[in-house]
Task: inverse folding
C-alpha cells in the first residue's frame, strides 16, 4: 500500500464569475457575431489561491489559520480533489475524508440510517463496513430509535450529531476538517472531541481549518497561515500562531 | 499532547516531482474518472433506488405508480390515435405502448441529462467524487424506470399475442445500446448545460418537438405507404431518436429487424461517445467551478 501524501506545486485556483448575462448562450453567440467589446466579453475572475506549494506526508498534523476569505476552505477543497488547480499541479494519494459542510449530502426525506449509509459510501467506505459501524454510530449519537425517522424530523443539533457520528467512525487516510462544528451541546462536544482525537490518530494526514486555538493546539503540530490566497507562513504550530496572532498563543493556553 | 516540532514545515526538500503527473486536461484523468465512478456501483446503485423510492414515498402502491401512470397514458394514446389513424387496436395499442416506454427512457436521459450536474451542485462542491458517478446514477435510475414499465409490455403481449421468436432477444443488445447512448448524452449535455444555463430550456423544448417527430403515436410504415405524404415522411429518418426506438421496438413486437437502424445507432454511439470523451477530457475539471 502506498502512503498517503499531498503534493501541490505552484497551484492557483481562479473562479470565473458568470453573471446572468455572460453565462448565457446569447452573449457567446452575439459575441461571435459582433466581435469583442473591450472587457465586456471577458468573464471576471476571482483569484482564490495563488502560488501554493505544499507537500504533506503521513503523520502530518496541519492547522490552517487565516482571516475569513484568506483561502482556507478553497485550499481544503483543492486538497480534497474537488477543485483541480487552474494552473500548477496537485497530486493527492490516499482515501480523502472531507468534513466541510455537515449538511451537504444529507437527504431530509430518508431515514437517519440511510443517510449514514450514503454518507459513508461517499466517504469511500463499503456497505459492509458501514453496516458494521451502525450500532457504534447509534450509540455515539444517542439518537436510538430516532435513526429510523426521516432526517427532516431532526433538530439541527441532532443532524450535526449524526454527521459527526458518521465522519468519526470512518478510517480515512487524509482527513480534512473545516470548522463549523457548532450547534452541539457541551456534553456532546466533549464526547465528540474524544472521538475526533481518535479519528485523527487513525488518519494518516490531518489538515484542520479553525479559529479555535484550543482545538488546534489539541490536534495539530504544524500550521499553515493563509493570507490573500497565498501561503504566508508554513512551519511549527507555535511559531506560526505566534506570528499570526501577535502573541504566544500556546503559552497563554498553558501548553509547553 | 507533546508538541514535538520537526522541521517538516519546509516543503521543498521532500516534494515529489509532479512533472509526470497528468494535468487536469488529460485523457488519463478523464478515463480514470469513468473507471472510479464505475467502481462506486454500490453508491450510485443505492442512490438510484432511493431516487425512485423517494418519488413515491408514503404512497400505498409505491413505485407501482410508474407502471400504472404509464399504462394509463399508453392506453389513452393508443385508443385516441388508433381511432384517428383508423388502426387496428390489437396491433396499434401494443405499438404505441412499446414506443412510449422506449421514448420515456430516451426522454429521461436527454431531459435529466442536461441538468445532471446542476441538480447535484451540493454534492459536487462538497464531496469529492468522480463526475461520472452522477451520470451512472441517472442512467441507472432511467433503467429502473424502464424495468417498471416493461410490465406493461408483458401484459400487452399476453392480451394481444405477437409473433415473438428468437429474434426478439435482439431487444437485449438494443437496450444495451440505448443505455450506452444515455451515458454520452448525459455527459455531453450535462457539461455544456452547466456552463451555459440556457441549454436546459432549449433541450426541453427540442425534446417535446422530437416526440412528435418520432413514430410513436403514428406509424412510419403507414405514412410511407400513403402516396400523399410519403415524401415528407422520409424526413423522419433524419430524427436520430427514431432509429433508437426502432431497434428496440422491432424485436419487442416480433417485427422484422431492419439493419439500417442498427447501423445508424452504431454510428451515433461511436460519434457521441467520441464527443463526450473530448468534452470530458477538456472540461471535466471545470465542472466543479461552474456549478
Result:
Amino acid at each position: 500500500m502506498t502512503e498517503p501524501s499531498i503534493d501541490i506545486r505552484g497551484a492557483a485556483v481562479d473562479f470565473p464569475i458568470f453573471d446572468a448575462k455572460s453565462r448565457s448562450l446569447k452573449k457567446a453567440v452575439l459575441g461571435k457575431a459582433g466581435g469583442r467589446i473591450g472587457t465586456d466579453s471577458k468573464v471576471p475572475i476571482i483569484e482564490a489561491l495563488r502560488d501554493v506549494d505544499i507537500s504533506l506526508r503521513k503523520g502530518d498534523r496541519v492547522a490552517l489559520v487565516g482571516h475569513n476569505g484568506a483561502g482556507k476552505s478553497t485550499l481544503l477543497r483543492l486538497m480534497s480533489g474537488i477543485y483541480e488547480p487552474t494552473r500548477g499541479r496537485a497530486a493527492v494519494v490516499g482515501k480523502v475524508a472531507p468534513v466541510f459542510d455537515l449538511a451537504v449530502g444529507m437527504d431530509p426525506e430518508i431515514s437517519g440510517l440511510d443517510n449514514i449509509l450514503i454518507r459513508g459510501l461517499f466517504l469511500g467506505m463499503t456497505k459492509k463496513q458501514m453496516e458494521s459501524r451502525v450500532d457504534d454510530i447509534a450509540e455515539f449519537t444517542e439518537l436510538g430509535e430516532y435513526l429510523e425517522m426521516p432526517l427532516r424530523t431532526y433538530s439541527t443539533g441532532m443532524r450535526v450529531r449524526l454527521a459527526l457520528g458518521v465522519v468519526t467512525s470512518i478510517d480515512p487516510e487524509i482527513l480534512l476538517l473545516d470548522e463549523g462544528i457548532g450547534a452541539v451541546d457541551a456534553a456532546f462536544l466533549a464526547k465528540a472531541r474524544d472521538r475526533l482525537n481518535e479519528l485523527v490518530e487513525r488518519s494518516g494526514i490531518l489538515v484542520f481549518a479553525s479559529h479555535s486555538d484550543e482545538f488546534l493546539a489539541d490536534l495539530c503540530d504544524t500550521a499553515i497561515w493563509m493570507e490573500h490566497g497565498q501561503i504566508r507562513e508554513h512551519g511549527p504550530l507555535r511559531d506560526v500562531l505566534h506570528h499570526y496572532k501577535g502573541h504566544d498563543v500556546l503559552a497563554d493556553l498553558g501548553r509547553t | 499532547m507533546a508538541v514535538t516540532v520537526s522541521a517538516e514545515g519546509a516543503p521543498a526538500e521532500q516534494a515529489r516531482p509532479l512533472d509526470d503527473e497528468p494535468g487536469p486536461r488529460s485523457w488519463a484523468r478523464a478515463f480514470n474518472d469513468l473507471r472510479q465512478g464505475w467502481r462506486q456501483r454500490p453508491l450510485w446503485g443505492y442512490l438510484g433506488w432511493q431516487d425512485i423510492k423517494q418519488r413515491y414515498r408514503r404512497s400505498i402502491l409505491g413505485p407501482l405508480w410508474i407502471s400504472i401512470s404509464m399504462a394509463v397514458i399508453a392506453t389513452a394514446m393508443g385508443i385516441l390515435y388508433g381511432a384517428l389513424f383508423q388502426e387496428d387496436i390489437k396491433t396499434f395499442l401494443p405499438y404505441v405502448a412499446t414506443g412510449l416506454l422506449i421514448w420515456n427512457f430516451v426522454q429521461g436521459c436527454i431531459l435529466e441529462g442536461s441538468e445532471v450536474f446542476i441538480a447535484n451542485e451540493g454534492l459536487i462542491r462538497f464531496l469529492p467524487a468522480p463526475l461520472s458517478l452522477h451520470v451512472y446514477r441517472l442512467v441507472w435510475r432511467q433503467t429502473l424506470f424502464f424495468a417498471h414499465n416493461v410490465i406493461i409490455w408483458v401484459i400487452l403481449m399476453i392480451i394481444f399475442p405477437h409473433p415473438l421468436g428468437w429474434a426478439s432477444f435482439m431487444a437485449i443488445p438494443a437496450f444495451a445500446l440505448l443505455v450506452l447512448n444515455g451515458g454520452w448524452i448525459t455527459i455531453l449535455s450535462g457539461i455544456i448545460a452547466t456552463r451555459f444555463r440556457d441549454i436546459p430550456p432549449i433541450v426541453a423544448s427540442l425534446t417535446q418537438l422530437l416526440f412528435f417527430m418520432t413514430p410513436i403515436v403514428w406509424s412510419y410504415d403507414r405514412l410511407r405507404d400513403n402516396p400523399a405524404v410519403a415524401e415528407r415522411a422520409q424526413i423522419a429518418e433524419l430524427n436520430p431518436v427514431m432509429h433508437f426506438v426502432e431497434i428496440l421496438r422491432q424485436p419487442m413486437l416480433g417485427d422484422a429487424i431492419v439493419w439500417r437502424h442498427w447501423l445508424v445507432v452504431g454510428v451515433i454511439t461511436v460519434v457521441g461517445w467520441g464527443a463526450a470523451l473530448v468534452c470530458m477530457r477538456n472540461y471535466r475539471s471545470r465542472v466543479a467551478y461552474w456549478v
